[in-house]
Amino acid sequence: MTSDTPAPITQLEHPPVTEPEARTSRGPRRSAGTHPIVWMPALVVAVAMLLPAVYLVVASSELPGERILDIITDPSTARLTGRTLLLAGSVTLASLVLGLPIAWVTVRSDLPARRFFAIATALPLVIPTYVGAYALVAAFARGGLVESWFGVVGPSPYGFWGAFVALTLFTFPYVLITVQASLRGLDPTLEEASRSLGHGPVRTFFRVTLPQLRASAAAGGLLVTLYVLSDFGAVSILRYSTFTRALYLQYRSAFDRAPAALLGLLLVGLTIVIIVLEARTARDRGGQFGARGPTRPAPVVPLRAWRWPAAAFCGLVVLVGLVTPVTVIVYWLVRGLAAGETANLALGAAGRSLLAAGLGAVVGVMCALPIAIWSARSGSRIARFIERASFTGYALPGIVVALALVFFGIRVATPLYQTLAMLVFAYVVLFLPQAIGAIRTSLLQVNPNVESAARILGSSRLETLRRITLPLARRGALAGGALVFLTALKELPATLLLAPTGYDTLATRVWSATAEAFFTRAALPALLLILLGSVPLAVAMIRERRELL
Amino acid sequence: MRAATRQIPRLLAVLAGLALIAAACNGDPEEAVGPDEPVGGEVVPEDAVPDEGPGVPPEAGPALEDLEGELTIYSGRSEELVGEVFAQFEAATDVELQIRYGDTAELAATILEEGDRSPADLFFAQDAGALGALEIQDRLALLPDDLRDLVDPVFRSPAGAWNGITGRVRVLAHNTDTVPAEDVPDSVFELTEGEWEGRVGWAPTNGSFQAFVTAMRLVEGEDATEQWLEAMLQNGAVPFENNTSLVEGVSRGEVDLALTNHYYVFRFLAEDPGFNVANHYLPGDVGGLVNVAGIGMLATSDAPEAAFELIRYLLGEEVQTFFGQVTDAPEFPLRPGVDAPQLPELADLDPPEVDLSRLEDLQGTLELLQDVGALR
């Protein structure tokens, strides 16, 4: 009994929870229970999500068969695959190792400045990797700012370890945020039961709390893995060759899209493998613990002797992931102004960034809602497939998605080509999984009995959707919207190619200034970009906490 | 729960409201490239504009004033470098410019994907290879002879599909604290010697570097180039992502020498007058290749007249003087007779003569760099 405690607890909770649901909607009847207003838009969105893959097939079909075979069998392709998987795997692992404990101490413990750290540790996410990696080099490379200010020579920021550290720091908040949300939504009675059965806090965490976080940790981890596949900024500046870097190189050096498209297709294949593996290992059983939502606030766990070391650890993450890049940017600004360079506030660009990313977030959430509801509230395989398919755009390098939309946009949607609508569409294709994941996770935390009850009490499917499901999805929608917003704010290749001509944003300003070494001019837009991305994220996190605790 | 129901639309309304406010604040997006936009205005130091007096060069004056219409330009040259020039063209004419700034190679790929429907009239590229890629796919129109002949044949497409506008020369940038000017080698072939082991930086993924390797293959032959690359790698050449990070690396002392373009040092000096990196020119060496930034007109352009005049304007004395003297990143004016006082004479540099737009050689260079392991 003592060695197998969680199982009996689960079983205790299980039957009353799942049975009514099973009766109403298990098996084929599940999708029959989904209102067309949910699945029809979901199908439309799904078609849009597959455009990049279709484009890659069209573009790489220009290659003669033997050339395709050459590229696939080339030893360098295998090497790239290995390097890419090594980086993605280790960054994901490190993100879990970093994200899970930080999420726990910032939600459940008496960590000093807990509320501050809950948000500050998530903020490295708003720093674009092309700025963050650059700043890390400026700070930590031989002769960099750290050496010249403090006389300390750190480890080299280049190569695998540099890319590993940078990508971990700038993406682990995906795990942190989803796990924090999940922790707040947990029903503390399970943990209390474990404690009352004689388990200590550590054992309770590993045997009761952690298993309940599995789905959200896996969702956050998947966002990290696939982000690493698509990243160009960090791997190029820190010199670590991955698929995405090779693909950019092919475009940039030889102006030949066909071999690049083939590399893109291989990347799609890699993505599919990762998604299938993730689905196998972390098959989520959202309802298995009898999600009831937080019936009351979980008790605060005292850290005792670990209080200050834990705070120091969180502080270190904030220092390296947030304070260091910001300091380097401020240094650029001060140094340049002292030399008589001019800086500009770029308010116009900030407005354009806000508009495009804000629309991207709103449309993204609207597209994500039907898919997330369908997938969370029915066992439909189609729904799961669509949800998975939406990862294609997210895992592909921005340039591939941008060129795919150039290709289709100018042929199929000519009047919309290079308009704001086109750009917003590109943001949705690129970042939709973030919104779907957040909404779906928030729905999975709510027992479907709530909806069943509404139906039994005579509410129609549509009314249940409007009065029960949508309001329940609200928390996830806010978080997902904030994520889409801040990633759209940082986005570069699609913004450069698909925005209305002359529509410069903060990200394009930063890029064009740093590319030509106009650091002073890059500084203010970069700081503004970080600030603008932080606000919605912080607001979403604060509201979520208020509602739940 | 009912309260929450009401809040979803409210939430969306707030977000949409924010978007609208942003739209209102931001006004007309086109202002970004307009002549009154403060950012562009800052490109030129305050004393530069008044010096030009009434501005328009006499040779092109009357023609420019009569020009009207709209031109769409895809510019791989950054707004920081050329925005002011375009703004002045708009001020001098009735032509409205729609300018899309981006990465040269990505814009070239975009034009190729757009096919015949491309909205672009002109493509202003950071390097000749991108223009060559469009030329070989028949996406560029031939320029009129009088326009083509404004530039020395070395610095334009032999067929006349594009013209160079400014030149940039490959140099050895050196850290002035660790390597005095007289110790800097005069040829890239000396960099493989033991003295420079682990002290040389390069940017193998960069277009200018690859153009230099292409030139070396054409001038010195495949075998010599491959041997040189291998010897460099054995000697511990340090790769950087681009020229900016490379020159910063020299400044920090990560490496002592860098194979790069001449104008980055000037940019850093403007940001930091005490900058400790200087250029060393390589006259007569293949390492001293001159690259060009150039412009071509798309074959599908519906405003060829205005497009040609813009190219002529870019090669006019006023703009060429701006590129050579006024900006803090001076380049070589390609119009004969215009000087760049901070730079050596182009003729004295004796650069290797190669056709930089040869596409088959770009793929060959990429493969060579991959084969020797320079891109890992």
Subunit organisation of the chains: heterodimer
**What's the number of structural domains of chain A?**
1
Mean pLDDT of chain B: 83
- Helix percentage range of chain A: over 70%
Structure, briefly:
The complex is a heterodimer of chains A (549) and B (376). Chain A is 77% helix and 0% strand. With 549 residues, chain A is an all-alpha fold.
Molecular structure report:
The complex is a heterodimer of chains A (549) and B (376). Chain A has 549 residues and is mainly α. Chain A has a single domain (31-290, 307-548), classed as MetI-like fold, CATH 1.10.3720. Helices cover 77% and strands 0% of the residues of chain A. Chain A contains 27 helices and no strands. The radius of gyration of chain A is 24 Å and the shape is globular. The two termini of chain A are 33 Å apart. Residues 1-32 of chain A have low confidence and may be disordered. Chain B is globular and about 60 Å long. In chain B, strands 1, 2, 3, 4, 5, 6, 7, 8, 9 and 10 form a 10-stranded mixed sheet that branches. Chain B folds into 2 domains: 32-167 and 291-346, D-Maltodextrin-Binding Protein, domain 2 (3-Layer(aba) Sandwich); 168-288 and 351-372, D-Maltodextrin-Binding Protein, domain 2. Chain B is built from 16 helices and 10 strands. Chain B is α/β, with parallel strands linked by helices and 376 residues long. In chain B, β1 (68-75), α5 and β2 (94-101) form a beta-alpha-beta unit. Classes of the chains: A mainly alpha (549), B alpha/beta (376).
